[in-house]
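Possible regression after last week's pipeline update?

I re-ran a chain I had predicted before the update to compare outputs. Posting the input and the new output here so someone can diff against the archived version. Not blocking, just want to make sure nothing changed silently.
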Amino acid sequence: DLHHSNCFGCGSANQKGLHADFPFHTESGEVRFTYAVPNDFEGAPGFVHGGVLAALLDEAQGTLCYHVGHFVMTEQLHMKYHKATPLGKPVTFRAWLTAVRKRRLYSRASIHLESGELLATSSASWYVLPERMLGKIFADRFSAEDSERNRIILEANRKRAREIRRRLRNG
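New output (post-update):
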């Protein structure tokens, strides 16, 4: 599992969570998914609360960073709401990297109706957590076995990301 079971965005055990799935598409190097936000997350009548959209885009972009081999924490998240997002209607989320630096990643994301109409956009910067820091931060949450499994997954994801970048550059 990518996150713990109580994660607000994707955790299966979080009764108040979004229960969204954030799949990575190897062909495009993006996180891309369709999701209908449940009525429990209503802001204005009939529309999704803007904070919930921000949480979904934060999670999609952060998950993208994991899929390309980095454990990150949000440094900055910028949102632009173009049009109100209807509750209960399938909308498409996309997240992609825009830059990779030594200790920072940068990404963008969008939400569209099935018709293609743009609803919201986001950009974010991410602080890359070094492995030694992960051990300190999550020492009481993860066993040594969990930490090793995560290290192996992140290394495989970094390798996959290098291959995707090379293919997209040459493609």
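Follow-up from reviewer: compared with the archived run. Strands lie at 24-25, 30-36, 72-81, 90-100, 104-113, 118-128. Marking as no regression found.
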